[in-house]
Amino acid sequence: MKDVETRPRKYEGILILAIFLATLPLLIGFSLLIISSFSKDMVTNFNFKSFHPTLENWINVFRGKLAITGGVRVNMIRIVLNTLIVALGVSGLVTLVSVMSGYALSRMDFKGRKWMIVSLMLLHAFPGVALIVGVYLLYRISFPQGQDWVRLYSFIYVIFARAALEVPMSVWLMKGFFDTIPWEFEWSGIIDGASRITVWRKIMLPLIKPGILAVALFSFLAGWQDIIYVRTFLIDQTLATFIEANIEAEYTHMPLIAAAGTLYLLPTIIFFLTAQQILLRGYSGGIKG
Amino acid sequence: MKWKATLLMAILVFAVVASGCIGGTQETKTETTKVTLTGDFNKDVIEIGKILEKNGITEVKFSAWGSGDPNSVMRVYGIVDTAYKINRIWKQNGINVKITVTTKYDQSFKDQYQEFLSKQPLGQAGDFFVNSYAFLPTLAEEGYILDITNYAKAYQNVINDFYPNLLEAAKYKGKLYGLPQDTEARPLYVRKDVAECAGLDVTTLPEKVKAGEFTWSDVYYWAKKAKEKGCAEWGLIHRKGSAHPDLIQFIFAFNGKLYDPKTGKLVLDVPAVYKWLYVEWKFAQDGLLPKDIMSWDWAKQIHPTIVEGKTLFDIGGTWYWTEWQTKQYYHGRPLTPEEVKKWFAYTLFPAGEKGDKPVTLSQPFIWMINSKAGQLNPKYEELKDVYHALAFLMIIKASDPEINAIHSVISAHLPVRKEAAKLIKDENWLNKLKNLDLDLAPEVKDNIKDIVEKTVNPINAQFLADVSYMLEYTHLAPAHPKYPALADIFKEAVDKVLRGEMTPEEAVKFIEEKIKADKELADNVEIVGEIPKDWKFPQG
Asked: Which SUPFAM superfamilies match (chain B) (predicted)?
């Protein structure tokens, strides 16, 4: 017996076609971007005559060259590394906070629990842009004076600020995952003499691995893609700010930016190609909460 | 509860005291912390070096932020080279201090300005910031850039060598906030082979334009003739985009104004704007200018149309000259300098009608110093004046005629100093530049090598020398915070008349209504004059 609702097969073709048509603009956009990154000219308006294959754009991106001729070179490896630090930092922090608080909200009764659960959704509704003034003020107040710590602090601050935006939704998701696990699992552990922390670590976490992975991946992408917070607080450039600062359509060599854009898309593409099944499992757990 | 409150207060007081102590360093003896500039560069640099050394400073860290097209990298390398030369002076005089410069170069100057705005208060913005003069008033008003008026007094001989109108662009409320780094003119390019086909003599054209004898009515006449005779697909191609100063040249060419210095307000000069829109409308309606040019692609439509000879006239910038030689706009390859010279003539932007004057428009870039320059260095508070004086000396050195001339030749911008203008006419010096046989930092030489290879030749230098006179006719777009909003409305109106969605009269009304609908804009814009009755275009 199947565990999902089934529909008559005669409509299947129509549904697939509708989904395909709905996603077509996105697919075309991304495909043209990727094709252009391997071309001397941008490929737009389905004019494939302007496709002249070359690897020059990718070579220049990795060499950190902003133009075909000369210019200031940037350290692209460093930029990719900066992006990774932010993304991994956000992912690690969000995952850690959400697996702990998700468990607490799911399993423990304490004063203000209900209020906290409701406000999680409310917090998620606040867009990052709306909070930026307050977050900026806090940054100015907490900013270290010593020059040695400034660069490091800007990374830490961006990671914390960006993670704070992801935490409410992730906690909500994790709570959902913990809710799906029967109490009996936990009780048996406690009866055997394990502490709540041990139960959480040794029994609960292995059971919600797909959920942890889903939260970690989504928060990684949030950190990887963030532009407003990294632009405002981070001293160093990330891929997002690099692309933004170099799109000046008049004199930018756009195929080179297409290559940088494709590089920027890579984690998302890899993620969706490899983690589809895990994600589907992850979400089915989360929704039940 | 009372003891809890007392405890809380005690913790608070402790925290305040402790925070004062955190980061506090053991008091060290501080030597002289002030410097008086003498106007002798070497002497001043040595004096500053000695002060820094006495105060235990061995390294001064600065960062230079610049932006623009890929060939304009001297905007940051000028600072790098200066550091190299100051370090050499210090070394020769046994001073154990060195300057290290980190660079940040982005292609979008507007984005970099936004970044400077958000990071300056945090002390994370570049110590040197080269950007459009248009942003200078806001930065000066906010206290984000250094007032260098007093420092400049000692270097009056250098200051006097800058073209006066460009120096004005570096001032705000009578105070000097930076030094001009470069500028440009926006010529009217004429395709020589198309002109010959149409019967237009380009050899005497620059003089006729200069004398105000060749006006926009003549541009229309020849554009139409070229098209009718099948010499070219279009009569005129121009630039596009919001707030682009190229098209507002029409306002000045029709003797209009955009800014009233008495009131400090922007001006909507109705007669001049009407005439501008009428010219655009007429060209587009008669098929001489593409109706959808405001949405054309730079690399795939605008530049190829010009370099492939599909138009008689083009309104562009001086930088086009080398851009065409470095980008693959001509059937998938760049033009050679010989081809650019062979195919293109250039003149001032013609007068609107007889009796008006030809014009051009500049958007000077200015070397500005962050008002927190040197903040990330040791003993900043005590040595602030020393760090600032050093930063000033660095932009003085980075404005050396040689650096300015190199920038001009490799990026096709115009020199801002008279001495630099002389250098680009000097064939010996050009040969030295071609071979990079100049006293420059090795890092700078290495990074400009391939730009120099592509752009340094007598043809390009001659072009710059030829167009330098245009600076005498230059106008500046208003450095007013609301100007970008007004320029956006202009752009929308131009697009609508070109597409034929509005007549020039309707477009002027549209601009007026848009201004009135925005209270802040309405408070900052004076609307003057009326649509002229019975005005005809073309005339004569």
From this structure: Periplasmic binding protein-like II
